[in-house]
């Protein structure tokens, strides 16, 4: 007996349905009807908050999805037409996780390159005080050691007496539910009233739509003593033994603050910024710079070229050669901000050959990716310089010159550096932690003047008149 003609078709249809994956049968949550969505890859969407609201939780930074982490690592950008919002809380949490884990990985690399067998000590304080293990290499350090969901604290790690690193410090600090002093609030208001800090806030027109999204919200914020704030920072200072290897300094930080409302019962311990009656503020800052003792043009050029490459990848339209815009999010503006900040006015000279520095950049998905990329570039920008110069010989006179220049480094820190002044102004400062960036050995000679035509004089000439290296 022959089968009805329709039966084979029904059997084929059943087989096809059984072979389909669940994603082919059941749609993803949320709207998927737009034509642009249907043409996109099936990978999860990355998200960021495009503006702040006084009704939203206000901690600064990031989506914690698996794709967000892999996208950050690979530099993937899936566009902005399918972006949805996340809270600043998530942005801050991702930055805290990144900084905590990156500290451990970077220290591993520095110890390996140094090759002396010397290791960084570990001094945990605050919410990190109960776990001072020397080994942070066994996975995520943040959830069990005061990171996400923890309180205020940090980890100060120091190496001394290495082959390359005479003294190095790598510090992680996390502040939650802090209260601004009147002096600190006044300083922040002063930076913002000038259109931003000398460390990178734009003084001119801005082409970044991401900054424009926040202008109205930020302009409404009145920063005052007693306001609540939270912050996280990772900083690195590596003072080298050989005077032909420049000192390296870098940091990345994020935080926020808002008007404190004592009558607000909706306190959220996981929130970066204490929510207020109407307004909040969150931002990022960071950068890196070189302090050479003997000028090797190739080293400084390569260092700046590396930084410019990072800036151009993230903000390709912000650095046109024929435009003199002082746009914060461009290499030229951040290089200029670095030169302006690391300056000793009493000496009429800059501390080093610069790098980039930026501050008060609104905390968004895009600015977070940039900050983390800058941090990932710290060692790749500096280690090739170490490799080329670490075995060069030097004289007692060259070593003494290095110590004289280190005196200028300490002079800047004590007289002009905002972080040091802020740290020492606290009621109970961690003096050792604040001063950990100080050089291990310095010298002061009265009225020292380099010999005419010497390499020392050539360096000072550049420090008095910074160059455009790339």
From TrEMBL:
<protein>
    <recommendedName>
        <fullName>Coproporphyrinogen oxidase</fullName>
    </recommendedName>
</protein>
<dbReference type="InterPro" id="IPR036406">
    <property type="entry name" value="Coprogen_oxidase_aer_sf"/>
</dbReference>
<feature type="compositionally biased region" description="Acidic residues">
    <location>
        <begin position="259"/>
        <end position="271"/>
    </location>
</feature>
<feature type="region of interest" description="Disordered">
    <location>
        <begin position="127"/>
        <end position="155"/>
    </location>
</feature>
<keyword id="KW-0732">Signal</keyword>
<feature type="region of interest" description="Disordered">
    <location>
        <begin position="245"/>
        <end position="272"/>
    </location>
</feature>
<dbReference type="InterPro" id="IPR001260">
    <property type="entry name" value="Coprogen_oxidase_aer"/>
</dbReference>
<feature type="signal peptide">
    <location>
        <begin position="1"/>
        <end position="19"/>
    </location>
</feature>
<feature type="region of interest" description="Disordered">
    <location>
        <begin position="28"/>
        <end position="51"/>
    </location>
</feature>
<dbReference type="Pfam" id="PF01218">
    <property type="entry name" value="Coprogen_oxidas"/>
</dbReference>
<feature type="compositionally biased region" description="Basic residues">
    <location>
        <begin position="189"/>
        <end position="206"/>
    </location>
</feature>
<feature type="region of interest" description="Disordered">
    <location>
        <begin position="183"/>
        <end position="221"/>
    </location>
</feature>
């Amino acid at each position: 007996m022959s089968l009805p003609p329709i039966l084979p078709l029904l059997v084929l249809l059943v087989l096809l349905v059984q072979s389909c994956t669940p994603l082919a049968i059941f749609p993803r949550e949320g709207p998927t009807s737009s034509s642009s969505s249907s043409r996109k890859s099936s990978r999860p969407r990355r998200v960021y908050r495009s503006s702040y609201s006084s009704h939203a939780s206000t901690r600064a930074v990031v989506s914690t999805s698996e794709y967000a982490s892999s996208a950050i690592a690979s530099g993937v950008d899936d566009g902005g037409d399918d972006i949805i919002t996340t809270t600043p809380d998530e942005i801050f949490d991702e930055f805290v996780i990144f900084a905590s884990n990156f500290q451990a990985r970077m220290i591993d690399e520095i110890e390996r390159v140094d090759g002396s067998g010397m290791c960084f000590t570990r001094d945990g304080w605050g919410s990190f005080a109960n776990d001072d293990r020397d080994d942070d290499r066994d996975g995520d350090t943040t959830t069990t050691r005061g990171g996400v969901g923890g309180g205020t604290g940090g980890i100060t790690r120091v190496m001394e007496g290495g082959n390359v690193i005479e003294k190095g410090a790598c510090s992680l600090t996390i502040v939650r539910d802090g209260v601004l002093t009147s002096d600190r609030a006044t300083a922040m208001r002063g930076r913002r009233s000038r259109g931003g800090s000398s460390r990178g806030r734009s003084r001119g027109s801005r082409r970044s739509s991401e900054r424009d999204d926040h202008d109205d919200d930020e302009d409404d914020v009145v920063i005052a003593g007693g306001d609540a704030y939270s912050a996280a920072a990772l900083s690195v200072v590596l003072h080298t033994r050989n005077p032909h290897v420049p000192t390296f300094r870098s940091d990345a930080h994020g935080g926020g603050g808002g008007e404190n409302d004592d009558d607000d019962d909706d306190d959220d311990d996981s929130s970066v910024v204490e929510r207020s009656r109407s307004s909040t503020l969150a931002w990022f800052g960071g950068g890196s710079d070189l302090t050479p003792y003997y000028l090797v043009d190739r080293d400084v050029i390569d260092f700046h070229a590396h930084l410019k490459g990072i800036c151009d990848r993230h903000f390709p339209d912000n650095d046109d050669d024929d435009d003199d815009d002082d746009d914060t999010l461009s290499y030229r503006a951040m290089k200029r901000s670095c030169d302006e900040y690391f300056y000793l006015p009493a000496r009429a000279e800059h501390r080093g050959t610069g790098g980039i520095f930026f501050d008060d950049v609104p905390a968004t998905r895009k600015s977070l990716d940039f900050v983390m990329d800058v941090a990932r570039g710290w060692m790749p920008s500096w280690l090739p310089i170490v490799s080329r110069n670490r075995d060069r010989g030097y004289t007692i006179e060259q070593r003494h010159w290095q110590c004289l220049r280190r005196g200028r480094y300490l002079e800047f820190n004590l007289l002009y550096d905002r972080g040091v002044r802020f740290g020492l102004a606290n009621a109970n400062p961690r003096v050792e932690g604040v001063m950990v960036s100080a050089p291990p050995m310095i010298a002061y000679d009265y009225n020292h003047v380099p010999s005419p035509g010497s390499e020392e004089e050539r360096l000072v000439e550049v420090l008095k008149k910074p160059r455009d290296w790339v």
